[in-house]
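Why should sequence recovery work at all? Because a backbone constrains its sequence more than one might expect. Tight turns favour small or flexible residues, buried strands favour hydrophobic ones, and helices have their own preferences. The token representation captures these environments compactly. In the example below, the structure is given first.
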């Protein structure tokens, strides 16, 4: 479960911009897993235990199946696997990418859902720009798009009726995750956080060096709207922005 970045943790200054309101904020780190959790209760210790539990399940599977960690293309389904591994395999198949493209969103969802089952009523779990949301009210999620002038100026409104859900962002110009494209950001909203994460990677790849700018943006939107289970997509390339699906953009100060 290692990234290509040799540093264990990258600077995530965007976390200082989060409006916490009445929620308890916690940063929980285990090796490369680096979560920012907002909750109505104190969950840091339990979240750390959950991260260790789910990491072990994925790491044990990788020891037996090394291609799970390295494949950039989908792998066949294996029914005799832990649910977290199965969800990553399914997300990779749906998005036509390797299963590790979904690891951050999957970890966020599994930790978040477990905390809700154990009593938390309000949960936000952010894992490197991939977010699992379980809130009782509407939320606005800002889009960080690197050096684009649109970075932090636009966000996605997530209605309470859609939650729990995932909103995940991939970039070819920022961050440590592998992307084969050059979009400043591709943000995907879906009920499934693993699926949103994997599709964000797939669509980021679609905004490739051979079809950058407007053509690549339009290609990513076209592919995104045809993937079942996706609520909406937002793509930012420099000064260009495009969106598709049932998604509401909001202007941010």
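From this structural description, the recovered sequence reads:
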């Amino acid at each position: 479960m290692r990234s290509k970045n040799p540093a264990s943790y990258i600077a995530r200054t965007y976390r200082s911009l989060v409006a916490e309101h009445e929620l308890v904020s916690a940063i929980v780190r285990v090796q490369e897993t680096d979560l920012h959790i907002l909750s109505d209760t104190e969950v840091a210790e339990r979240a750390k235990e959950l991260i260790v539990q789910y990491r072990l399940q994925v790491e044990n599977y990788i020891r037996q199946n090394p291609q799970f960690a390295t494949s950039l293309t989908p792998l066949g389904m294996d029914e005799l696997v832990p649910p977290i591994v199965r969800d990553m395999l399914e997300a990779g198949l749906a998005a036509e990418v390797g299963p590790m493209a979904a690891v951050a969103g999957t970890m966020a969802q599994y930790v978040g859902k477990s905390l809700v089952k154990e009593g938390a009523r309000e949960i936000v779990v952010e894992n490197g720009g991939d977010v699992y949301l379980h809130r009782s009210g509407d939320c606005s999620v800002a889009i960080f798009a690197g050096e684009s002038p649109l970075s932090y100026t636009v966000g996605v409104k997530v209605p309470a009726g859609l939650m729990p859900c995932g909103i995940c962002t991939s970039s070819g110009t920022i961050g440590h995750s592998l992307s084969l494209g050059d979009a400043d950001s591709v943000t995907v909203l879906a009920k499934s956080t693993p699926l949103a994460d994997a599709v964000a990677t797939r669509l980021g790849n679609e905004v490739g060096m051979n079809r950058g700018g407007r053509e690549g943006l339009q290609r990513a939107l076209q592919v995104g709207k045809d993937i079942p289970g996706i609520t909406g997509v937002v793509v930012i390339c420099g000064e260009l922005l495009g969106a598709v699906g049932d998604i509401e953009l909001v202007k941010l100060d």
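A few observations help interpret the result. The chain has one domain: 18-251.
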